Amino acid sequence: MPGRSIERKRAKPGSRGGGRFFHVEIRPSAQFIAFRVQDVGAPGGVERVAGRRASGSWDTAKWLVEKTHAHVADGRLVADSDEAKKLFASLGSAPIHVAGDRFRARPRRDVPESAKPTPAMQRAQLANIKRAQTAARARREGKTR
User: Quick one: 75 and 127 in the same domain?
Assistant: First the structure.
């Protein structure tokens, strides 16, 4: 049909598979009004995209994982580096393929303040106290000799 123009919408980042990163969406971008990218850990590798809500609070919108730190196997993202393994362990679910370089995962479970300290927090606190007591004991014994 001559004279008829076809409007193309802008492709979402990561939807065509040509970039440097895998995009792991945690929360829909519609929840946020502004975004900021933060490098996590060593330069490159894993980056956090933080989103600002209308209320002013910030939360993680998605994670960017460099393609050298992970690969795709059976529609899932598999970590190749320690940094990526740590990230995937902290997510609420395994990243599942959506399209192109885009994946979706659930955020980690929110622990209400009434349930804190959790048993894991209590174990960590006891371990820290024992470690501090051992260090203090070693310092005292070093001074008396």
Answer: no
